[in-house]
Amino acid sequence: MDIAVAIVQTIIVILIAPFISGFSRKLRAKYHTRTGPPIWQDYIDIYKCLIREDVQTKDSSFIHRLMPPLYFGSMIVLCLGVPIMTRFCPIPVLGDIIFIIYLLALPRFFYTLSGLDSDNAYAGVGGIREMLISTLAEPAMILALLVAAIGTGSMNIGAMGEVIAGLGAHSPIGVIVAAIAFALACYVELGKLPYDVSEAEQELDEGPVQEYSGPSLAMLKVSLSMKQILIVSWWLAIFFPWGSALTGEFIPVVIGLFWWLVKIIVIFFAISIFENAVARVRYRNVGAQTWTMVGIAAIAFVLCIIGI
Amino acid sequence: MGYLIVSGGVSIVGAIVALLCSKAEMTAKVVGCLFGIVSTVTAIIGGFVAIFGQPEIVSLTSWFAFAPFSLRLNPLDGLILVVINVLGLAGFIYGLSYFDDYKGKGIGAIGFFLNLFMMSMNFVITVDNAFWLLVFFEMMSLTSYFLVTIAQNEQSRHGGYMYFVMAHVGFFLIMIAFFIMASVTGSFDFQAYRETDFGPVLSSLIFLLGFFGFGCKAGMFPVHSWLPQAHPEAPSNVSSLMSGGMVKIGIFGTLLVTLDLLQSCTVEVWWGIVVLLIGAASSVLGVAYALGEHDVKKLLAYHTVENIGIILLGIGTGLIGIALENPAVAALGMMAGLYHLINHAMFKGLLFLGAGSVLFATGTRNMDVLGGLIRKMPITSLCFLVGSLAITAIPPLNGFFSEWATYQAMFTAAGDTNWWIMIFMGFAIISLAITGALALTCFAKAYGITFLGSARSGLVEKAKEVDFPMTLPMICLAIICILLGVCAPWVEPFVMGIAGSVSGVYGAIAGAGVVVNPNFNTAISPLLAFILLIVMILLAYGLRGCFRKGGIAHDRDPWACGYEPDQQMPVEAFSFTAEVRMFFTPIYAGRDAILKLFAKFKDLFHGIQHVADKSQSWGDFAIWDPFKNFSAWLGHVCQRIESGNSRYYVAYIVAGLIVFLVIAVTV
Known about the structure:
Chain A has eleven helices and one strand, in the order ααβααααααααα. By secondary structure, chain A is mainly α. In chain A, helix 1 packs across helix 2 (41-50), helix 3 (62-81) packs parallel to helix 9 (214-239) and helix 5 runs parallel beside helix 11. The two termini of chain A are 34 Å apart. In chain A, 61% of the residues are buried. By secondary structure, chain B is mainly α. Chain B has helices spanning 2-20, 25-52, 75-98, 107-126, 130-148, 154-185, 190-194, 199-218, 227-230, 236-261, 269-290, 296-323, 327-362, 373-376, 378-391, 398-416, 419-451, 468-486, 488-503, 526-545, 573-583, 585-616, 618-639, 646-666; strands at residues 56-60, 69-73, 510-511, 514-517, 522-524, 552-556. The longest helix of chain B is centred in the middle third of the chain and has 36 residues, at 327-362. Chain B is globular, with a radius of gyration of 32 Å. Chains A and B meet through strand 1, helix 3, helix 4, helix 5 and helix 9 of A and helix 16, helix 17, strand 5, helix 20 and strand 6 of B.
């Protein structure tokens, strides 16, 4: 158990989160043939939010006040457990896949509740959609993880990464198809176009986020960006762990950090190419698309049963 | 054993005294509740003695020579006793204030039936004889029927009728199972059944009858429709007792029949698969139907169906493990099922008491006219929030731990056994995942629409926080929920021990504050997660509090794109329902199709009734009517002789005399 690694990686993720969202923003501007804001714009935005007034609606309660710190705190706890710079989990008891999936439900629950609490119609609808999108994405996620767990013989993210890195999984083709299905399900969870239904800027005016301002908004923005980074890191830790440190020594960890940054930037670059090429999915059709992802995961499951 | 008998005696005395005081309603209420409190505390002590002590069986002769009154106390009985009586204790303390709502509807009768209900549940769990189990089962059904219909309106009568019919269908199936066993062994005593090997055909038949019979009481999928119609109608503390306690007797009965009474027979794999599939169906369908409700108590009742499904998933996996002689799967599955049984009782009891407080304060159960109760009823809303977090399996509360254990059992079964078990396990795992996600949506709706936002009607304005007798049980149950989750590594060995005493298989998975699944090289630590979450959230709160330069305002209108915000704009319960229906249409289409089928059955039933009515008079028509007509015609003919004219009578006398003279001369 490496507490130092856990703390360092949490601080790094918090500091990098606005950079990643600023990076996506800059790339979108370039695809729209604009100059766009500087890459550091999100840091400047956070500073501006911190000095502004924090406004709540008159009928909201402590749930609305509680949600941003709760989201931030949950993301920190998740950061402590996900392998980012190392192949193993820095704190193994926080690295169980079922624990992570259900811990993601805590901030999501309060996100929806705050949407209902603020009495804002758009926030309420955004909250409901957040719940439903994750409901639809979860079966594909769990089925893909089941295949990976059976293939690697473990349900701890770090241990799964170690087995896959050593190319020792029981049913390799099944695990590869599961990796594809899990990537698709994670993409839905990221909330990037075409699946940004809960924060649909043009439809819903950013959903539950719209009724936050000032320091609460700053904290919420950082937390949402951290969640995206964590979901991508999660996929990387299980299915593409090459480059991360095998021990907790200083030099391997720094090399692991470097390779993680490279992987994250490459993936977010690819994501931004895709997200700027598509429009938002029609809400009605999300169901058909997520059931297709479940179908891909089911193919992976069948391959795993056969043993290929 | 003594504690149990004392508890039963106190209940009977309390019931009679409450009934005698019916005229003085407040006295009846206090007396009934106090006797109930004493009786439940005694039973809880007895239950703990049974969990930690030696199993014992005591047999007393009764006035039925064929059925001695045997009582049995083993760890499983003790567990169910503790669970049910904790809820009973909470319900009785709650009733000290809640029953004020039932003035004029018979508080004395409520006290009578409630005390007898508790006593009959305690004895259903502990008797060791088929006859007496059926007697107490029937008593349990009857007393709870009267409690369901206590409100005496159309809805409660209909709910009570459905409940009555299904309880007796269950009773009938259990009775047949016991009679089969009695006909083979020649006795009603369970000890005789434990030593007899019934053979594969009979044991499978007994398993199916016992499972579906007790399943009618548990409210599992095919036989669940009575539960949302009956449980909401009872007083809320009775609902919490029925939903949290009585359905557990259904699960207990399944375990009793399958693993205790059929000890000498082999457990088949397909038994476990049947339980697993019914569990998967119950859990998904229960939560899908719950999403369509805007009556808070009906929503909670459907969630009971869902959670019984999750318990059955664990128990089904355990049975599969026992059948395949895989100790890891068996131990994990049984432990997960029993732990979820305890957890469900605690958080469902808490949620029903919360719903009862809302009903007491506002007078309505309809979510669509509530909202903003968090400002009027802070303690209730906080307890309901803890209950919602527990039921949606959010770490580190208790619901999360038992669902984690269920996942571990199913994953272990998928990884460790043959390929066709893997298919069933994959299906079950997906069902549990969908269930968890839909339950989260449902409770976001239930908590958000009822307690958050602005008030949707004037009923909320006059609501105020409920009294101490009602908040105390809620707070205690909330604390129990948190403790059962955070201290899971220390509670789990006891539950594993009880599960092991039932299944015969033990597995050690907890130690040093951590729960481990060695088959899959993974571990969780609920205590660490709890501490980290609290610390990090407080740190984040403090961090945000450092930036107060702009100030905090609490008085704005919600943004409505430049329009004046009005009452119709915020979302309502139907918004949730409409969206879920859009994505999960097949589930609801299934229910509509089944309802149409039931309507056809009802028409068929009415048609048969009609034919029976008509054919009832066929006997009259074919056989008795001709006789009747003939004798009437004969009478009419004979009537013509009595014409009323006295000269004819004189002529009859003369004719008669001539006939007799002729006979006298010739013979």
